[in-house]
Amino acid sequence: MKSLFITCLALVCFTTNCSNDKTAADKDATEKVGEPGGMEGTEWQAKADSLLKLSPYTLEQMKALLPAQINGAAQTNVDTHDALGARFASADYPLDDSTSFMFSIFDCAGDAGVGIYNMHFRTQMDLKSLPGASVKAVDFKGSKAIEDVDVREGSAAIIWLSGDRFLMSLKGKNMGIDEVKKIAAGLSVK
């Protein structure tokens, strides 16, 4: 599963264009139409510009961001990766044999990080308009987030931006989205 995730991450990084080479017509059209999630194009661009100026964390710094426990469950299976400059850390937090959490953090700093931010977060904000979709944009902790519920797998996840640079995801196995969101509300990175 993690190797598939890393492969997808690498593909995203290869296909993402992080340049600011938009024509005046492109910029004008973006500003008039707006962007997914209720933010205007200029707001998204300002966020991307601020992320580009930041230096990415090291893998050790990313690992240190993972909490030792979540909701009483101890951290296991810690994993860190640097996929073409996009830094990632994750850990599993098993509650019992059938219920667990997976907590993941992406550093959205630098070119590769902005690519992750654009592809994994910004573009998914528009999925709220799909009827019957299990993925939708929601309000969470005072800003936009992505809620993903998979009834077939019995999983629910929330993805949000924390500390103005970290894309965080908490996925719960065999639990509802409300419980996952309640636990995620207590997680933050500064």
Q: What's the topology here?
A:
Layout: H1 2-15, H2 24-33, H3 41-52, H4 59-65, E1 69-70, E2 73-74, E3 76-83, E4 86-94, E5 100-107, H5 110-122, E6 135-140, E7 143-150, E8 155-162, E9 166-173, H6 177-184
Antiparallel strand pairs: 1-2, 3-4, 4-5, 5-9, 6-7, 7-8, 8-9
Figure out the total of helices: 6
The succession of helices and strands, N to C, reads HHHHEEEEEHEEEEH
Helical amount:
25-40%
Count of structural domains: 1
Structural class: alpha+beta
User: Could you give the order of strands across the largest sheet?
Assistant: 3-4-5-9-8-7-6
User: Main beta sheet: strand number and arrangement?
Assistant: 7 strands, antiparallel
Q: Poorly predicted ranges (pLDDT <50, ≥5 residues)?
A: 3-38, 128-133
Shape, principal axes of CA atoms: globular
Output the radius of gyration: 17 Å
First-residue to last-residue Cα separation: 28 Å
Strand content: 25-35%
For the secondary structure, the number of strands is: 9
Mean pLDDT, to the nearest integer, reads 76
Written description of the protein model:
The protein is an alpha+beta fold. The protein has one domain (2-184). It is built from 6 helices and 9 strands. It has helices at 2-15, 24-33, 41-52, 59-65, 110-122, 177-184; strands at 69-70, 73-74, 76-83, 86-94, 100-107, 135-140, 143-150, 155-162, 166-173. It has a 7-stranded antiparallel β-sheet with strand order 3-4-5-9-8-7-6. A two-stranded antiparallel sheet has the order 1-2. A hairpin with a 2-residue loop joins strand 1 (69-70) and strand 2. Helix 3 (41-52) runs antiparallel to helix 5. The model is unreliable at 3-38 and 128-133 (pLDDT under 50).
